[in-house]
Description:
alpha/beta, Rossmann fold, seven-stranded mixed β-sheet, 17 strands, 24% helix
Amino acid sequence: xxxxxxxxxxxxxxxxxKGLVEKGxxxxxxVTQPDKKVGRKQKITKTPAKVAAEELDIPVYQPVKLSGSxxxxxxxxxxxxxxxxxxxxxxxxxxxxNSVKIAAVNVxxxxxxxxxxxxxxxxxxxxxxxxxxxxxxxxxxQMDAGxxxxxxxxxxxxxxxxxxxxxxxxYLGRDLLLETLxxxxxxxxxxxxxxxxxxxxxxxxxxxxxxxxxxxxxxxAFNLIRALNPDPGAYMMVEGQRLKVWKAKxxxxxxxxxxxxxxxxxxxxxxxxxxxxxxxxxxxxxxxxKKMPVKNFLNGQGxxxxxxxxxxxx
Length: 314
């Protein structure tokens, strides 16, 4: 079986790495991002890919920057058949891509050329897409621009959020990769160039994009909430305080209230948005507190809001 240098960082990459090992590929190394401080206590935390690699007894490399590093020289000397990347998080030098015997392959969480970049899964939700999928592509110097080996689509369900889609796509990516690698190895697969006229980019989510505003419709707010769940979370400013919204649904009703007003606060907590739309808030996290269902919120600080009151700040 062919040898592989695997490169990945988040949980998305773990089923793909394990799938390669279970299928019998000789994974010579796992390259992942450096350990980083996480949470309020700033605890040094290993990446999910590193944890999996250590469980599988595979050597781990964690250069801060791969290009020009001693680690790069070591990796190139392995003369692997494949490089396989799955949400690694760094550009790879061209000489490294060219060092493998067969191909450098990327498992990408979108239907390219739509959503090149670091946040394809989030943007599929943010834009209210009906489907997303996996692309197995040839790696080139330009970001996510290589020829396509294979693609497979799945429907985006109403209750999907970013976390659920990451999990679904990681297993879809594993299966499609394992189906595609033998065809690349024996030369029976045909590559398809990406249509440059249909390229859409999905840059990493910015801090500014995390905020729910009154200018949004309820549907747009709903899409933002699920796109940013579980990380980093979307929030709205309510009477000067940050209120994270982890779960919501678009109400069937319309309202004549101005955007940002309380539509209902008895048994449900609903807010008016643009175009007379209404959003039911279902799971909330007030500043300095834990996540809670809306019932608990209403029993606490939510009870002070009155119907028709404008509570959402700009």
